[in-house]
Structures are given as structure tokens and as C-alpha cells.
Write a structure and sequence with these properties.
717 residues; alpha/beta; 61% helix; elongated
Length: 717
Amino acid sequence: MTSVKNLSGGFFGHKKKNARTPCASIALVGNPNVGKSTLFNSLTGMNQHTGNWPGKTVLTADGCFSVSGPPESTYLITDLPGTYSLSAHSPEEETARDFICRGRNGTPPELAIVVCDAGCLERNMLLVLQTLEISKRVIVCVNMLEDARRRGVSIDCELLSSRLGVPVIGICARSRRGARPLTDALPAALASPEYSFPIPMKYPPAVEAATSVVEKALGEVSGETSGTNKRWLSLESLERGSDAVREYLPPEADIRVLDRALTEAWDILSSAGYTRETFGDELAAARVTHAEEICRGVIVSDDRNGGYGARDRRIDRLLTGKTAGYPAMLILLALVFWITIKGANYPSELLGAFFTRLEALLMQSANRIGAPEWLSGALILGVFRVLGWVISVMLPPMAIFFPLFTLLEDSGYLPRIAYNLDRPFCRCHACGKQALTMCMGLGCNAAGVVGCRIIDSPREHLLAILTNSFVPCNGRFPSMITVISLFVITGSGIMPSVMSAIMIAAVITLGVFMTFVTTGLLSRTLLRGEPSAFTLELPPYRKPQIGRVIVRSMLDRTLFVLGRSAAVAAPAGLIIWLLANLKFGGTSVLSTAASFIDPVGRLMGLDGAILLGFILGLPANEIVLPITMMVYLAAGTLPELGSGAAIHALLAANGWSARTAVCFVLFSLLHWPCSTTLLTVKKETGSVRWMAVAAILPTLAGFAITIAVNALWTLFT
């Protein structure tokens, strides 16, 4: 029986005073969040060195541990960054691949340990298969067995080992169980010859024929001096060209021989209908199919305990299918907005009445203590009234929308939305992760901009930031809903509310479409480049925890966004009050400004008062409509939050029609982001120039679309 000692005192409590020269180098590979680093820490203790991979900001960690004999052996283990594949589409993938192929000094590690999550073994198997294609010796560690067992998932490690042809060891790294069988297996694994698949990885016949041609050429140019698997090199060169594998060949290798072989191989592939764009997809599809075959019977899942099984697959065929995926998204989106519209009206009226009564009490108190009229006007009729507007209009829909949105997230549906939108984003040369940041923008564009940090590529990160505001935030919804229900979809009952929800969903769909269009244009002009790979884990569907969802959505989202809006609305209220009460020649600055920009507003199907409302609403989109009403009334304060009938009467008396409402909704969707979002863009990009671009892009689109809609409306009516 052997025992493990890490060189600073391991988890078995032994210590090693004199470090020995490691007898073998080991690479630790795995997907993110599979417990790889936990296993690494258990083996090495504190005897670790962490640093960046040369030329990249990607961390790797080195550590040593020893196994008592006889003989006693010391091993150097390198914890590689978590990666979903070895296709080198990201710095993490490139670092992991290069280390497995060449190590740090040109010598590949003697052994690769691939750590897998027992609960997602089939997904992890893709990395296992790629590692087996590169490395000569592999051990597979199936981690988190206890967690998987609680979810009703069990793994037959012996069957998996027989199918892969390599040792498969079940471990629980967090509880430090299973490390001894792993270390016991190291000497035999290192002493064994190169493994071969009992169930070999087979690609389509044309791919196999082309691979054989290239593999023969690689043997001619490198002989036996190259330690890298020639079959893997063949596949890499077919997918990426000879330059992708040059660094793995001897310096004296005649690359022209390889280029001629690649030309011959691609003649074979082309005759079979393959293109350079589809070849990589075919390889991935073959690996997925092979992974499914290997895992068949190895994974036993009990759906009743929450495992990803037949039930989830049936649901995914509907929600992520080519036919029903997009309609399902639109229906769910419309349903969320219908519930929001129906549920928010009454609470908004109650809050409006409450703030009206509270304002009256404050004014009475100010008069009672003899406060100057200008002071009570600025603080109560200016700051407080604007705050009342923001809270009354924003809080009810947010208190409904955010919990519903969080329920979709908690149930596991939100990653499916990102999956559905991955292909359109890839066609725009962007990353599918942008779909996730776009969904975050529905709540708050500033939060969506911050969420763009999940995108690794600097180019795609910037694309996501610049186009995030094309999707309307929660601050724009109340005005859009009010205007649609008053002028476009009128009446009472269920059907008008359903139609209003459908129209809001259509407006958001237009925003998503404009995101695709703008992203595609930027990818072909200012920010040229190819899309990076996007690997997304689809979690099992789970029953949402209602109580936790409500608390989390209220504290983390609703109150956060409301607090931010209130913070910018208060000074905005003061400025608006000053502009409304500062008069020249009997006309306020507010009215003068509205008259000056009126021609531009008319061209857009709006008027000067509406356009001024958007300009002064820069701090918070929630105050656009009340500012517009304030200009119409020529009042020194914002109008009180009245009934829908009163608002309709005021707007109609100032020339509003269905055309005005449609153009208002379109420009609400497409105009400059709020000040908070713009400042967030500047912070994330570190550039005033990109902040200006983020403001100009949606604004240009808004001007173009509203002018076109107004012209067409005039032409056909």
C-alpha cells in the first residue's frame, strides 16, 4: 500500500523535508468547475507555483507531491486552465493544448489526468476524447460522484474504462476521497505503452482517407522525432493549415511535403462535399456522436432526482429545436410582458395616489414653517415629484418582471435562449455569449454592459458593449406600455392586454434584430474578425425555488435598479424645475428649447416637446413622458400622476395620434442610452470615443427608422 506526501505536508499529514527531482511530469486537464483545482490542492498542499503562461494572461499552477513506495516517487503536476475543448479557439484552450503537446520545454508531459464531473460526464467526454487523440498516456478521474448520486446519477467506472482503454477512477476531491486509488495507479500508467481505443474514434470515410494522406506525409517530414500524435496533427492541419502544426515539427522538416499532402487531402474532402467552413463542425459532430456511444450504459440517470435525462431531452427538442425554438421564445416573452402589464397597472395607480397625498402633506408642512416658495418648489415640486414618478412608474413592473425573469433563469431556460441565439450571433461574427448579456440588458443596460465581461475575446467584448442598448431596459417599458395601451391597442379586458404584450414582444424582437444588423456591420468594418467558439452548458431543468427567487430578484435586481434610477432622477428633477421656471420674455427655457427642435421632431413623427423629453431624460428614461407632458402644460412642475384617461386627453389635445405613439415607441427603443449606461461603457472600455459610439449607433438607427415610418404613414394615409 502506498501513501501520498505533498512536499509541504499533504492531506495525509506527512511531510517531506528534502525535495526530490520529479520522476515524471503530469498535466491536469478538465472543464471549468469540475473540481480539478481542488484535486490539485489536495495533492500538492502549499507547494505550488502559479504564473502566467508565456505570452498569455492565462494562469497555470505547478506543484509537487510524492508517493511512498517502494520505490518512493515524486511527481510534478501542472494544473492547466479549465477548458471545454483543445481546439484552440481561446487562450485557455491554446494553453492547455500546447502544454499537452509540448510541455514547457518542448517535452510533452508523461501523463495527462482528465478530471470529469460525474453529473455532466457526456459533455466532459468531448475533452477526454480530444486528450486521448493527443496524449500517449491518460487517466480519467470521475469527480463529484456523491453530488451526482444525490441527483440520481450513477457512473459505471469499470465499463467506461473498458470502453476507453485507460484507467477510470472515481473520486470525491472535495471530501478527499479517491486520491489514494489515483496515486496507486500512477506507476502502472506511466510504465505502460501508449494506449489504444478498444472503441476507436472513427470519422466519416472521406475524413479518414484525407487523414491517412496527411499522416503519411507527417511521417516523412518528422520521422519519429516528433512526440506529438500524428493523427491529431493531421486533423489539425486539415482544419487550420500547415502553419497551425509547424511548431510541433522539427526545424528541418520540409513543410512543402505537408502542403502537397494537404492539397491532395482537400481534393478528397471537396469531392465528398466538405468545405473549410464545415469541416470543423463535422469533426465536432463525430466526437459528440462517439461520446454518446461511449457513455451509453455508463450513465444511469433517475429523472425524478433532477438528473439530465429523457425528460430534459424531450423538452429541449421543443424549446431548442429549429422549428419550435424561436416561437417558444416569443410566446414566453409575450407571456411575461402580459403578466407584467396586467399586474402593474393597479399598484402604479396606488403608488401614484400615495405620493400625491404625501406631496400635499409636505407642501402643507413647508407652508406651516414658512419655507421660501422657491425652496419648497425646487425640493418638493421638483426633486420629490420626479422621485414619485420614477418609483410609481418603475417599481410595480420591475417587481413583477424581475421575479418572472429570474424564474426563467432558475428553471434552466435562460441558457436555452443563449443556445438558440448562438447561430445568428456567429453569422454576425460575434460570440454567442452576447445573448446572455443581451438578456441582462432587459433589466438594466448598465448591468448588461458589465455582464459583457464574460466574453473573453476583446473584439467580441467590445461588440457586445456597443450594441447592448439596442435591447430596451426596464426603465423604457413603462412609457412604452402606457403609450401603446392609450393610442395603439385601446379598450379594456383580456384581449387588449394580450395584444399590448404581443406588441411589446415585437418591439423587443425588433431591438434584437437591430442588434444583429449593427453587430454584423461593425464586424465587417470597425471591428473585423472571426467569431470565437462558444461552449455553453445546458443545465438540467429544475423546479424553481419560488421564495429564494422572489427575495433574490427583489434585493439584487429590483431595488438595485430602482435605487440607481432614484439617484439620477433626484438631480434631474431639480434641473427640470429650474428650466421650467427660468423665463425670458414670459417663456420658459423649456418651452423655448422645445420650439427650437420642433422641426426635427416633426420630421420623426414626433414634436419638439417629445424630443426634448428624450434629451432631458438622459439621466433616467422613466421621466421622458412626464417631461413631455410638463412642456405641454407650460407648467413649472411635473404633472401629477393621473389616470390613463387624463393622460390620453392631455396628449391627444397636443396632437398625439396612433402615428405619434408608434414613432414614440420606436424612438424609445432606439435612442441614446441613459447616463448611467454611458458612464459604465466608458468605465468598461476606458475610452470616451467608444462611449460616444455606443450613444451614436442606436440614435442613428432611431432617427432613420422613425423618419421612414413617418414618411410611409404620410404616403399611405
